[in-house]
Amino acid sequence: MSIYTLCGGHIIDPQTDTDIIADIQIEEGVITKIGGKLSGGEVIDLKGKVIIPGLFDMHVHLREPGREDTETVFSGCQAAAAGGFTGVACMPNTQPAIDTASVVKFILDSAKNLPVDVHPIAAITTGRKGERLSEMGELLSSGAVGFSDDGSPLMNTDLMRRALEYASDFNAVIIQHSEDPYLFKGCMHEGIVSTKLGLPGIPSLCEELMVERDVRLVEYTGGRLHTAHVSSKGTVEIIRNAKRKGLNVTAEVTPHHLFLTDNSVMGYNSNFKMNPPLRTEEDRQALIEGFLDGAIDCIATDHAPHAFEDKETDFGSAPFGVIGLETALGLILNEFVLKNKMNWADMIDRMSVKPRAILNLPEMKIAEGERANLTIIDPEVEWEVNPAEFKSKSRNTPFTGMHLKGRAYGIFNKGQFVINT
Amino acid sequence: MSFDFYRRHLLGMEGMSKGEILHILETARSFREVIMRPIRIVPTLRGYSVVNMFFEPSTRTRVSFELAEKRLSCESVNFSSGGSSVSKGESLLDTVQTIEAMQVDAVVIRHSAQGAPHFLAERIRSSVINAGDGYHEHPTQALLDMFTLWDKIGGLSGLKVAIVGDIAHSRVALSDIHSLKTLGAEVMLCGPKSLMPFKVESLGVKITSNLEEALEFCDVVYMLRIQLERQAGERFPSIREYRQRYCLTMERIKKFKKDDFIVMHPGPMNRGVEISAEVADSRYSLILNQVTSGVAIRMAVIYLISGGKDRGKF
């Protein structure tokens, strides 16, 4: 029988109103005791560390099957663990797409013995082609947790309506990559910077029109919509208004949109190329405001690994996307939590509670009798982002060289301890 | 006035100071004297190697660079990639390694991708000269335009210049805007709204879609080439309608009775589309002066980039 005793950590869980320094005893992956002076089994000293419910990233690209040279389920989970995530939901834009039960099962099997929970998001439409609905019922019963054609928008308005309706039979969420493909002709935000660089732009409108349309569809059909990677001020306003009306609409924001603007593209570094693009300081401030006040439900990294040789080219030719699993927590701690702009409870809400709730996954609480699913944070450690040290197979981060305070010390999940060394 | 020039690369006109620009123009004036001599060649850059990499078709710019290099006694070679099945991206990465291996002193690059010269400059030891990158910049064109005007009328301060045409898809426009603004000229852009870059007024220029308004405003009109093969039907209805709205004709010029009016064009022209043949060949036109200036400017740029002063007087 495996027994662990975690000693002296600062336990924070708003779901159970816990905010104490105490020991945790775990037997066979289940929390058996929380209290003082516990001992037994393997004792791990966590003085000065913060223990919170395991973080969850609801938007990652694990690239398997199809581009195993850039990431696999295994390497992606290593990156997640290193970044403090105990669970991820992976997007279906693989080759083949996650649109049948057999691909869902393949991914679940690949992750079975790993310390990170992997939950596939299945395609809304077969092959992500936007033509025919995928077999949502069977996909859900085989383990998919939601639907998205991410990487591409679902443009066909009637099909989007039917997807929202059909998925609502299962209370499943439709995650939209919001983009009007007719307005999508550029490679960076359309603004003063794109004009100076001579690069074709993608207007904020490209995202906002699609979100606006989908919100109207939710209003009409009563389905559940989640807006992936919100990037513009206008979108935050649309989401805020939809929530005010009581509509079933949620949204996520990526760390890169919270921390960077289109000014970073000056110099044409393709590690600042992602879709949706980095927008202006005004947009960034609106995203921060929405993230702080809860208009935006959660953080998702949109971890998008790309091969070095694919990114190492001129800005226009490089693929969209950056990785984020190993930098997200450090960025949020450094800028928001440790500077008291956001309290621990809200941070846990945005990075652990909400993303699971959106995908109908069970809550992860720190309490006796619960599964031990924990993220352990070292709030004091100072470090520099160095892609060479990443567990991910890819290196395409926009945060190279950034100095941060606070990072994941380790995770505990599925009876396994992963400590970052 | 005397200015120093310490750049190792010429990537764009954005951010270049007035002093630097004037220094290049002064240097070009000396070189123009050289190319007016019976023997138009100086030994200044003997042993200095330059590779001209043209990833896009170009005749005049390439020939102008080649002549400039030959007249400076550079060793120069051409490397052009036409119709290769290799994707743009791969060839750019390969290009970097090839150049490194060839140990050349300078690279002149023309590429369809914005930022391609910047990509090279960050990765190789050679100097990089941008000979046009996509819709971004074409700095030597802007410098030769400035030289042509400066030579003709002296200072550019207060000069009113209208740039007419497809601004959104013009690397010449962006480089000229930066240069003209830096030298104190006033700039008005003229063209259909659908061919204007987003919020281009943020660069400190006026905008109009009316050619007559632009002609009334300006002392110099700079006509851009309209890409016949592109955009018609998507960004504007047709060449026919474009000609009706924007073709610079003698009638349109005469309406404003400006005797010392100046017409420029970066070439190659679509005679009868953006500019009438009559205007192109008229006394207003400085179009051939621009071509002559091109060689002198490119000599000056290569000389200065090479660290010219250390190599002795030409």
Overview of this protein structure:
The complex is a heterodimer of chains A (421) and B (314). Chain A is α/β, with parallel strands linked by helices and 421 residues long. Chain A folds into two domains: 3-50 and 368-419, Urease, subunit C, domain 1 (Roll); 54-358, Metal-dependent hydrolases (TIM Barrel, Alpha-Beta Barrel). Chain A has twelve helices and 18 strands. In chain A, strands 1, 2, 3, 4, 5, 16, 17 and 18 form an eight-stranded mixed sheet that branches. In chain A, strands 9-10-13-14-15 form a five-stranded parallel sheet. In chain A, helix 7 links the parallel strand 13 (225-227) and strand 14 (249-253). The longest helix of chain A is centred in the middle third of the chain and has 17 residues, at 205-221. The model of chain A has no long low-confidence stretch (mean pLDDT 97). Chain B is of the alpha/beta class and 314 residues long. Chain B has two domains: 18-138 and 292-309, Rossmann fold; 141-291, Rossmann fold (3-Layer(aba) Sandwich). In chain B, the strands form two sheets. Chain B has a five-stranded parallel sheet with strand order 7-6-5-8-9, sandwiched between helices. In chain B, strand 5 (160-164), helix 6 (171-182) and strand 6 (186-190) form a beta-alpha-beta unit. Chain B is globular and about 55 Å long. The model of chain B has no long low-confidence stretch (mean pLDDT 91). The A-B interface holds A 190-192, 194-201, 203, 267-268, 309-310, 312-318 and B 14, 87-90, 92-93, 111, 113-116, 118-119, 133-137, 171, 174, 197-200, 202-203.
